[in-house]
């Protein structure tokens, strides 16, 4: 093991808190910068918006424009939380702000005199973006550094509280870089009372994908509720969709068990789902957004049952949706 790797391991083992640099101090970055300060880390920030820079300095976190980067920071862990807005024409995320961080990152790497710094992208990006970004940085410096990805789950209305006390911490790292894993674990466990059950480690592509799936799942549930609300109104205005949905949350296995329905590679079977899903779908007016939304469930089930997906199907000894009655309220 190299001397730098040994130093990294010793740092993690000793519980030493590495210094934090937060690039991008808006809603998300600002909340995390304050959270790290709250947990006793040395923190400083960068942003391009004068009002944000002023706000961070007023909060006791030294912050400046990237053009005014000091020459003696010796970075250890650098968090990047820059916007990735949606491009309406393409319905893809705009990566220009992520790419714009490269010059500052190179400057920080060149300043490093200790263990190789870890750059943690926290912006929502498509799978593969972190590695592309790393390659672009490597083209501009020969000094060692590491990359990682950490999805964040902050809610806008409670961002600072969520940052200080997350219900789960997830991060992705490059396989084989166990010192990076140890250093990041050492930092992130501070936020969950050193409870390792609240920390999950993935590879970088899984972590990038997980962030998108996480947000899609939230959007899916909201749209599901509104679809049922709209369909109920079409069928019979006397149906109280809100009452029905809340009751379903207390009766349907998918709400009672966190794991129900998440065993991949097998279609739903039995008697009820294969007939009731098409029936509810057929109740929606032809050509309506409700029919379009509901029909996707049946189409996905047809796909996983078809010859097209035969190489993806998983042979199971029991139903993929089976959960023991004792586990329904806890699993």
Write down the Rg: 24 Å
Under the CATH scheme, the architecture of the largest domain is 3-Layer(aba) Sandwich
Task: Count structural domains.
Answer: 2
Mean pLDDT score, rounded? 92
State the fourth-level CATH superfamily of the largest domain. Answer: NAD(P)-binding Rossmann-like Domain
Q: Outline, from the CA principal axes?
A: elongated
Helix % is 40-55%
Strand content: 5-15%
Q: Cα distance, first to last residue?
A: 41 Å
Reading side by side through the largest sheet, how are the strands ordered? Answer: 3-2-1-4-7-8-9-10
> SSE string, helix = H, strand = E?
HEHEHEEEEHHEHEHEHEHHHHH
List how many beta strands DSSP finds: 10
Family: Belongs to the UDP-glucose/GDP-mannose dehydrogenase family.
Domain UDP-glucose/GDP-mannose dehydrogenase dimerisation: 206-302
InterPro entries: 6-PGluconate_DH-like_C_sf, 6PGD_dom2, NAD(P)-bd_dom_sf, UDP-Glc/GDP-Man_DH_dimer, UDP-Glc/GDP-Man_DH_N
GO molecular function: GDP-mannose 6-dehydrogenase activity; NAD binding
Task: Describe this entry's structure for a reader.
- There is one protein chain.
- With 331 residues, the chain is an alpha/beta fold.
- The chain folds into two domains: 3-203, 3-Layer(aba) Sandwich (Rossmann fold), CATH 3.40.50.720; 212-327.
- Helix content is 44%, strand content 11%.
- It has 13 helices and ten strands.
- Strands 3-2-1-4-7-8-9-10 form an eight-stranded mixed beta sheet, with helices on both faces. A two-stranded antiparallel sheet has the order 5-6.
- α1 (3-14) runs parallel beside α8, α9 (204-235) crosses α13 and α12 (272-283) packs antiparallel against α13 (289-305).
- The longest helix has 32 residues, at 204-235.
- The two termini are 41 Å apart.
